[in-house]
Amino acid sequence: MKFVGHHILSVSQFDRADVEQIFDVADHMRPYAMRKRITRVLEGAIVSNMFFEPSTRTRVSFGSAFNLLGGEVRETTEVKASALAKGESLYDTARVLSGYSDVIVMRHPEPGSVAEFAQASRVPVINGGDGSNEHPSQALLDLYTMRQELQAQDRSLDGLRIALIGDLKYGRAVHSLCKLLCLYDDISLHLVSPPELEIPAGIADDLTAAGHQIEVFHSLEPGIHEVDILYVTRTQEERFPSQDEANRYRGLFRLNQSIYTQHCEPNTVIMHPLPRDSRAQAQELDDDLNQNPNLAIFRQTDNGVLVRMALFALVLDVVDEVDNHAKPVTWFTAKRNEPLRP
Amino acid sequence: MKFVGHHILSVSQFDRADVEQIFDVADHMRPYAMRKRITRVLEGAIVSNMFFEPSTRTRVSFGSAFNLLGGEVRETTEVKASALAKGESLYDTARVLSGYSDVIVMRHPEPGSVAEFAQASRVPVINGGDGSNEHPSQALLDLYTMRQELQAQDRSLDGLRIALIGDLKYGRAVHSLCKLLCLYDDISLHLVSPPELEIPAGIADDLTAAGHQIEVFHSLEPGIHEVDILYVTRTQEERFPSQDEANRYRGLFRLNQSIYTQHCEPNTVIMHPLPRDSRAQAQELDDDLNQNPNLAIFRQTDNGVLVRMALFALVLDVVDEVDNHAKPVTWFTAKRNEPLRP
Amino acid sequence: MKFVGHHILSVSQFDRADVEQIFDVADHMRPYAMRKRITRVLEGAIVSNMFFEPSTRTRVSFGSAFNLLGGEVRETTEVKASALAKGESLYDTARVLSGYSDVIVMRHPEPGSVAEFAQASRVPVINGGDGSNEHPSQALLDLYTMRQELQAQDRSLDGLRIALIGDLKYGRAVHSLCKLLCLYDDISLHLVSPPELEIPAGIADDLTAAGHQIEVFHSLEPGIHEVDILYVTRTQEERFPSQDEANRYRGLFRLNQSIYTQHCEPNTVIMHPLPRDSRAQAQELDDDLNQNPNLAIFRQTDNGVLVRMALFALVLDVVDEVDNHAKPVTWFTAKRNEPLRP
Q: Which chain B residues are closer than 8 Å to C43 by Cβ?
C-alpha cells in the first residue's frame, strides 16, 4: 500500500491513481460523516494536531475527522506555548512529539517547515498548510468536490472547464489545485486576476505542458462565461508585502447573483476555499448567492471531513477495517448531515 | 419532543414544564456525574465548544458533561485564532462548523451573536453566554440548585424567599434567573444593590407581573433578613463603561460569617454564580464562610455538569437511552463525587 | 495502596519502594505505549490538564498518557483565559474544577501554587511543574531512563556515576533528580557548572548526608571523565533576574561529538530534560550528537509517557485492571513505537 506509514506533504507526491484512491475512500467515509453509523476503527489511536498558526476550519476538520474514526485528538494551537520559543529545533520537537501520538497534523507559517519536521518524526505527518507553500488536503477536497458536482451532471473531471478567480499569485490553494488538475485530461482554464496577481509562470507552464488550455482575463465578467465551475478566492492579504498593497486589491472582483445570472451558464458551480471575506469592502462572493443551489462552498467544507478521514485511514492502513468496527447511531442527527444538494 | 434538535438560546424559550423536565433529566444524570457508573450513549458524537471569550468554568463544564455522556469535544478558545479575524461572517462560520460536529456550544462577547450564529447552523446550538445578554445554562443550574437545597428542607420553589445581592444592573446571571423565577408562584425577592446598580426596570416589571413581591434595599444587612437564599454576585467590572466607575463599587457589599450569624435565619443558603472576587478590596463572599455548610456555591458548580448533561441529552434525544449504555466504574472515585451536603 | 487517591506534589513524598513501584508499573505500561495493544481501563474517566504556563511537551505527554489508558482530556492552557483573571482564588478554582474531572494535572509559575490548589481539590492533583520548585514527573522519568540505560549494561542505579552539567542553580529538574538519587546507594556525582550557578547548598548537603560522593567542576572537559551518564541542562534563562545576566551563561558549556569522543568513556549515556537550546549561541548539546546511539534524550521523552501512565494508574487504582481491558491494535504502528535502542 503506497500510503501506509507515509507522510502527506505535497500534492506533487500523488499520481492520478493515488488521487482516485483517496476519493474512493472518501466516498466510503460518507455514511460515517453523515452519522448514518459510527465506526471505532481507530479506538485508542491519537493524532497530535500541531497548529503553529491560527486556524479554526482546518484544525477542527482534521480533529473531527479523527474523532469520527474513533481516535483521540491532542492539540497545540500556539507557537508561543511551545518549546520552540525556548530555542528548540523543529527536529527535536518532531522527535519528541512523535513519541506521543500515532500521526501528526501540522500547520506552520514557514514554507518547508512541515517537510523538515517530518524528516525527524517517527510517525506519519500530514501537512495542514506550510505558509505560502502547500495545503494538500485543501486541494484534494476542492477536487473531490468538483468531481462530486460534475457527477451530479453525469460528467467526470476530464474535460472540465473552470475559472480560477482572484488572487492567483499568493493563493496556495489555487497552486495546489492546479498541480492536481495536471493529472487529468483536457481541462480548460480561465485565469481571472488583476495583472499584478497573475498565476506564477511555473504553474501556468505545468498546465500547458499537461495539455490544458489556458485563457487569461483581467476582468471578472468575460472570464466567467462558458465554464462549469467558478473557483473564487479571497485576496491573501496576510501574504502581501504590505497592508497598503493588499488594500489595492480588496473588493476588485465581486461576484453576486445578478452578475451570475447575466454571465454564467445555468448550473455553473460556485466554489471558494474559504474563508470568504465578508467585510463591506471585500465580498468576493456576495451573501445574496447564499440561496443559489449551485453555491457549493459549504459542500466543500463538509467534504473536507471525508477527505481527511480518507487520508487518516490510508496512512494508518485501516481502510478495510472501517466497516468491521461500525455501530448504529442512537442520537438525533440534524439535517446538516445531508448534503444540501445530492 | 420539544427539545430534540432545537437550539438553547434563552431562558425565555422555556415554560415551567420545560424547566421541570430539564431538572428531572438532570436528577437522572447524577449517578453518572458522581461516577457511580458511566454511560457511553453519545459514543461517536462530537460537540464543538466555541469560546470566543475567555472562560474556564463554563467551557470545561460543558466539555466534561459531553465526555460524561461518552462523546468527544473539539474546542476553539480564541477569537483571534479563528477565520472571523480574516473577515468571515458568523453565518459562514456557523455553516462550516455545523458540518464538523453534532452540537455546538458557543460563547461570544456580542449580545445576540449566538442567536445569529444559530440561524445558520445545521446542528443545535447551545448559548454559553453572549455578552450581557443571556447565559441560560447558568440560570438553569442556579434554579436547579435552589430546588435541591429547598428539597433538603422538604420545600419547593413555590413560596421561595430570596435576596439578590450586588450588581443587579449588569449581572446577566441575575437577569436570566429572574426570568425563570417568573415561571413559579409566590416568590418574595429582596433586591439588594447600590442605587446606581439596581435591577433593570423591565425585569422588575416582569417579576411584579408574575405576582411576585419585590422589596428594594440599598444596604446589605437589612436585605438579608427573613429569606431562604442569598444569591450574591460580584461586580461585573468588565461590563462597566470604565474601570474607574467599576472600582467605586468594589467591595461595597461584603458578606462574612459574622454578618451572616447576626442577620440571617438559620440555614439560609448562600449562592453565587462564581467566580467570586477574592481580591482584598472585593470579597463579596468572605473566605470565612467556606466552612459554613449552607455555602452552596460549589454544589452549584457541581450541579452545572448535571444540567449541561441534561441539555445535551434532551437536544440530542438520548434521555431514554442513557441507562442502556451504562457500564460500571472501575477506578478510584474521590469524595468530590459526593455532594458535600445531601 | 499508598498512591490511591493521593496527590503527587513532590519527589520528597516518595521512599525508595514507592519509586520502584512506579517504575515497575511503568514497565508494565510499555506494550500499551508501544501500541502492541490498547487498554480502555479508564474509559469514561476525565483528566483536567490545567496549564497556567506555556508547555507543549509535558502537557501533551500527560494528555496522551491518559488517552492511552482510555480516558478523556479536558484542557486549559492560559492563565488569562481563566477565572483567576477575575480575582478568583486558587481555592475556588480547585474546588470548582475538582467537580469536573477525576484527576487534575496542573502547571503554574508560582512555587507552591500546586500544593495550595491541591488542598482544596476533591480529586487527586499531579504537579506538572510549579515554577522553580518541583516537577516530579520529570525527575521520575529521568531516573527511570537511567535505570533502563543501566539495565542494558546489566547494572543497577546503586553505584551510579553521573555528571550533572550546566545551570545547577535554577534547574528544578536537577534539584528533583538529586532528591531521588538520595534514595539510592553509593552514587558518585560530578557537579559541573559555572561558579555562580552551582547547586544550592541544601541539595549538596542532602547528597552528602545520603553517603554520596560529590566532586565540583567549573569546566566541562574534566567533569565528564569516568561517569556512566552525562545529564546536561540548558540555562533556565526565564528564571534569571535579568536577560542580561542569563546571556552571560549562554553557550558556556557545549558538548559535541568531538569532546565526547575525546573525554568520555565508551557508551557514556547522554541525557537532557529538554528542550535543548539549539540557537547558535547556546547548543549545550550539539546536533552532531544526534547519530550517537548513547544519546538517550528521546528515549527520555518516550519514557515520560510510561511514567505518567504509571502515575495515573497508581493514583486511580487501576494497575491490576489495565490488562483486563486490553484490545488488539488494528492500525499501522510506526517504528517510533520501538525504542531506538533496546
A: 38, 40, 327
Q: What distance in Å separates the CA atoms of residue B146 and residue C313, rounded to the nearest whole number?
A: 38
Tell me the C-alpha distance between C16 and C18, whole Å: 5
Record: contact A54-B82, CB cut-off 8 A? yes
Q: Which residues contact C31 (CB under 8 A, 6 or more apart)?
A: C37
- Shared domain for A125 and A145, answered yes or no, is no
* CB contacts, 8 Å: B315 with chain A: 332
Q: Tell me if B277 is assigned to some domain.
A: yes
Rounded to two decimals, the ipTM of the complex is 0.93
- Residue in A54, A238, A302 closest to B99 by CB: A302
Do A213 and A103 share a structural domain? no
C-alpha grid cell for residue C139? Answer: 525527575
Interchain pair B87, A282: CB under 8 A: yes
Q: Are residues A29 and A79 in the same domain?
A: yes
User: Same structural domain for residues A145 and A269?
Assistant: yes
Report in angstroms the alpha-carbon separations of B199 from A3, B1, B12, B284.
63, 35, 18, 18
CATH code of the domain containing A228: 3.40.50.1370
Question: Same domain, yes or no, for A266 and A312?
Answer: no
Residue C230 domain boundaries = 136-298
Interface test with B, best of A36, A56, A284 (most B CBs within 10 A): A56
Query: What whole-number distance in Å separates Cα of residue C261 and Cα of residue C266?
Result: 8
In A127-256, alpha helices (H)? 136-151, 172-181, 201-209, 220-223, 243-247
| B290-317: b (≥16 Cβ within 10 Å) or e | beeebbbbbbbbbbbbbbbbbbbbbbbb
Among chain B residues, CA nearest to A340: B122
Residues C224 and C140 in one domain: yes
Measured between beta carbons, the chain B residues lying within 8 angstroms of A238 are 86
Does any domain span residue C293? yes
- Count the domains in chain B: 2
The reply to whether B124 and B157 lie within a common domain is: no
Q: Measured between beta carbons, which residues in chain A are less than 8 angstroms from residue C289?
A: none
What does DSSP assign to residue A177?
A: H
Q: Which residues of B touch A55 (CB under 8 A)?
A: 81
Contact C53, C82 (CB under 8 A): no
Give B325 to chain C, closest Cα distance, Å. Answer: 12
Q: Are strands A326-328 and A161-165 parallel, antiparallel or unpaired?
A: unpaired
Beta carbons of C99 and B305 less than 8 Å apart? yes
Q: Judge whether C117 lies within some domain.
A: yes
Q: Please state the φ and ψ torsions of residue B73, each to the nearest 5 degrees.
A: -120, 125
Beta-bridged to residue C188, according to DSSP, are C161, C213
Structure pTM? 0.95
Say whether C87 and B287 touch across the interface (CB within 8 A). no
In a domain, B213, yes or no: yes
Claim to verify: residue A105 and residue A185 sit in the same structural domain: no
In this complex, do C45 and B327 lie within 8 Å of one another by their Cβ atoms? no
The reply to whether residue B64 touches residue C44, judged by beta carbons under 8 angstroms, is no
Q: How far apart are CA A193 and CA A174, in angstroms?
A: 12
Tell me the pLDDT of chain A (342 aa) as tens digits. 589 999 999 999 999 999 999 999 999 999 999 999 999 999 999 999 999 888 889 999 999 999 999 999 999 887 654 556 668 888 999 999 999 999 999 999 889 999 999 999 999 999 999 988 889 999 999 999 999 999 998 999 999 999 999 999 988 889 999 999 999 999 999 999 999 999 999 999 999 999 999 999 999 999 999 999 999 998 877 777 888 877 887 778 999 999 999 999 999 999 999 989 888 888 899 999 999 999 999 999 999 999 999 999 999 999 999 999 999 998 998 765 443 332
